[in-house]
Here is the input.
Amino acid sequence: MPGRTKAQDDASSHDADMQDVPPSAQEEISQDAEMREDAEAEEEEEEEIETQRVRILPGSTDTAASFEFTDEGHTLGNALRYIIMKNPDVEFCAYSIPHPSEPKMNIRIQTYDGTAVNALKKGLSDLQDVCDVVAEKFWSERQSFNAEQGIER
Amino acid sequence: MAPSRHAAPSAEEHLRRNTVGINKETVTNVSSTDFPGHFPGEDHAFSIEQFQSAFSIQFHRNEANDASFSLIGIDASLANAFRRILIAEIPTLAIEDVFIENNTSVIQDEVLAHRLGLIPFNGGREGIHNFLKWYKKPEAGEDPYANSFDWNTVRLELNITCTVNPDAAPTENDPLKAYNHAHVYARDIVFVPTGRQAEHFDGENAIRPVNPDILIAKLRPKQTINLAMHMHKGIGADHSKFSPVATASYRLLPLIHITRPILGADAKKFQKCFPEGVIGLETVTREDVSKPGSGYEGHLGELKAVVKDSMKDTVSREALRHAEFEGKVKLGRRRDHFIFSIESTGQWDSDELFLESVKHLKLKCKKLEQQVINMVQ
Amino acid sequence: MPREEYQVPTTSGGASAGAMTRGATGGERHDSRAVMTYICGDCGGNVTLSKDALVACPHCAGRVLYKERTKRMVQFEAR
Here is the structure.
């Protein structure tokens, strides 16, 4: 792993200064009031011990949050971004891969209404629904095509 | 919240939004714009019912190792996610460890091992997909063979020696006739079932190379290769030998729009600018002539160019290179029509593979959803 | 890459090394007579030499002798 030159908790230096960005739908807040500690959940003892692969990056608020996914890349990032953008409550959604050598993917969600975490959850669940629809249609098309063409498999 | 007035774009506008423009030297209108708030007054919020009604699939061919089908009404990010999963994240069985007892051939050990890893194998589906599980490499200090069981490792052997063929003519030059086993092929690899593998992989279902004629090495007399191999499951992201597809790719449906009539000799030339079957030649009918402003007036009976099947087009933009077609043709691609082509290497069926890829994406989302819930607890 | 590190053959070290690696390699014995077979460079025949023997091929008197490939098993990752 490449060595880190900055300490991981260097929160304020990652965010842009709030005065410089175009007007946002988020409320004006003072930097120190709403700052949450990065919510690193303790390792949950599930059936297989799964390391926590999603975390909220420091500097996130209720409606504007950045999430870091480990071991994910463009495959999930772009698909998830597209689905989350189709949510009318979402003001901003984008993903990036900070460095190609590290398997990390950051997603930023800013919402007009509702929490960013809810938007993320909705996005993941919508994506699952899409997969269901695709799989079902694919299988039924495949069956009818095989029947038409006389393919037995 | 965006306004709830549901103004639907006209069919023309819809086509315009969905078309990626292909010009002589540029490509225009590439990004998708179907997000809420992009077009005021329109509702582009995600709704599974709307997706379901707009989405469709058409199969073009479905052979065991080669499937071609179209996904219509889906966005590029999703189609690409399926493609990426097909290439990199579907588990396959391939040779991982090679134990060389003896190799006196001219092929170096590591080169031989590398070649063996790349050979695609086939076997009983039920055995490979359900019975065989993942293998975890033991840590550096542990016994290297501790984690190998019949349910995660398949053993193969290759033992071959080249000898002089006594029956060949003394002046024989062809090494295949002068020597026995001068060429080592993939079919010389022997599957050695261990434990319960004997039931899952017997007869038709035995683990065998997909293509038995792959040449592994060439030998001369007194040279011998004695080695054993262990196969494990892996994914393409780890090493491309684990990729289940020769390749999986998609292209967007090409669109050819003839805006002004192309007639007579021009029409023939136009037909030659595209692959066979894309452009057809028809005669101008009375009906065409009667349409005012269509440009067909006074050309009754001449040959005109008509788009027959744009799917066969390879979009070489040849037509844009000629001055006589300037302003008469518009090329483009439909942004939401993906023509997938999946070529499997043999361990999975092509159609099975796509389904597996969709399932995999769903599973990924499910796991992450649980993690997100854990994260905010 | 070979899985095992090279171990200098010594009388005491050889015995313990032999015991450790026995299962994997199939047992290489440390021979105190040092009778080794070599391959002649000119005629390709096998040449057995013991300690302090003259370095020459009995068949063709060629003096270039090559060592045979090791009898140890070598493991590679097929990558």
